[in-house]
Amino acid sequence: MTDISQERIERAIRTTCATVLRNEHYFSDLDGLAGDGDFGTSLATGFRVIDKEWDEIPKTDIGAMLLKISMLVSKHVGGSSGPIWGTGFMKAAMLTRGKTSITLQELADMLGSAIEGIQARGGAKLGDKTLLDALIPVHEKLKEHAAGDGDVCAALCEAAAAADSAVDETRNLVAHRGRASQVGERSANTPDPGIVAIATILHDWCKDCGLAQTPNAAEVAKATA
Ligand SMILES: [Mg+2]
């Protein structure tokens, strides 16, 4: 059972910036299959600001850092994703005030609180073909390992695989929430770009552990290639 240091969380944020920026056009192309094609650019606009302003983001503790990131995400991520992703980071920040390291259980609790916040904010539930369809099974994996072996890297890699599976499991659903819901049936047979983004970010976190695995969903395989 090893704690997760603030340094490790900082690295995960930097990795997230790199993942989002590398896949800007690809995520927008995926969104264009059923939505308005802006998802990748919306996300990248916000994470580009985080990347550029990295040195000015407070690092006194994990909570202060995540609170600033939540504000930058809410302000700069465009479309419907800004308030949703911003809420997730804000909830995680609230649970880490004053902390410079966390346990895997605390990481699981941060994600649990983020999920509750996102559900309250967007009104989506499991099966609505939104990023929650990735985050909920990921939360389960983190909880399992927190209660079991406490292995952070194993938890992240299994979480990546769970999010990856969510891409295929939701592919044939019609979106009920988010922008893709506006095109109704046209959203069937297309992957949800938010779910692909979560899976891709987790695969890159897994690579940071030195435990890269091969994604199953074609869209995630392309994004992590
Ligand atoms: Mg869109």
> Unreliable segments (pLDDT under 50, ≥5 consecutive)?
none
CATH class: Mainly Alpha
Strand order within the widest beta sheet: 1-2
Q: Output the CATH homologous superfamily.
A: DhaL domain
Largest β sheet strand count, sense and barrel closure: 2 strands, antiparallel
Provide the helix percentage: 55-70%
What average pLDDT do the residues reach? 94
Number of helices: 10
Distance between the termini: 31 Å
Tally of extended strands?
Answer: 2
GO molecular function: glycerone kinase activity
InterPro entries: DhaK_L_YcgS (IPR012737), DhaL_dom (IPR004007), DhaL_dom_sf (IPR036117), Dihydroxyacetone_Kinase (IPR050861)
Domain DhaL: 7-207
Organism: Croceibacterium soli
Task: Describe the model.
Helix 2 packs antiparallel against helix 3 and helix 2 runs antiparallel to helix 9. Helix content is about 65%, strand content about 0%. It has about 220 residues and is mainly α. The chain starts with a strand and ends with a helix. It has one domain (about 5-225): DhaL domain (Serine Threonine Protein Phosphatase 5, Tetratricopeptide repeat). Strands 1-2 form a two-stranded antiparallel ribbon. Bound molecules: magnesium ion. Magnesium ion binds next to loops.
How would you briefly describe this protein structure?
This protein has 225 residues and is mainly alpha-helical. Helix 2 runs antiparallel to helix 3.
Characteristics:
mainly alpha, 2% strand, 225 residues, Serine Threonine Protein Phosphatase 5, Tetratricopeptide repeat, 10 helices, binds magnesium ion, Dihydroxyacetone_Kinase, two-stranded antiparallel ribbon, DhaL_dom, Dihydroxyacetone kinase subunit L, glycerone kinase activity
